[in-house]
Amino acid sequence: MTAAVYAQPGSGARFDWGLTGAAELGRVCAALVVVDVLSFTTAVEVAVSRGMRVHPFPWGEQAADYARRVGAVAAVGRRQASPEQPWSLSPAALSTAPVVADLVLPSPNGSAISAAASATGLPVVAACLRNARAVGRWLRRQGYGSSDAPVGVVAAGERWPDGSLRPSVEDQLGAASVLDALSGVPGGLSVEAAMALAALASTPDVPAAVRGCVSGRELVEHGFGGDVDIAVQVDVSDVVPLLRQGAFAAA
User: Fold this and answer.
1) How many CB atoms lie within 10 A of CB 69?
2) Which entry of 42, 101, 110, 122 is 20 to 30 Å from 35 by CA?
3) Residue 107's pLDDT band (boundaries 50, 70, 90)?
4) Residues facing residue 158 across a β-bridge
């Protein structure tokens, strides 16, 4: 098997997982869609819809230094949020926090993938359940989805304690929702994309599935059920966050 096969050649919409999958699709696709439902891309949609520019950054202490360099506010972890520092990875917190012009929003998955993908120079879009259909419409209008201008849809997934990728229900369903909106593009779906889409077809109640999956239950048990409530709102937003010059803003 040649390395080219891993890029799912010949199809207009392709699907893969995590940072490595994003790097592979980034070599050959004309645009990338990053999906991290719980919670990076949901948080991005909420913040961008309120007029903030969101700078992705890998998880780590260097985020505050980066924020100072670019003149932005640095978000903190959910548990570190306070009245003085209300900006965090929590979509619920970002829905009520004061609006700032620029926000650095680190996370170990979706944000790290987005930051790495920005180096490719490709259009990078943040998608979640809230805006999946709007993202699909926008991609079609821009002419993406042919075999000559394929779209790569990347489910961020979670991480096991050893750092390895843990595929997640919520991101597969979020990615599948984008792929559903891309069904019928000229280049068709790769086998991987079609199989991801099949998960959506077999899930009669997407919000219930996300609430009941490991990631959803984990957030609820840690007191962040409000984040799940916001994340499971399906197709309620027309905002398409597009990564330009290092930050997500409305396309």
Assistant:
1) 9
2) 101
3) very high
4) 166
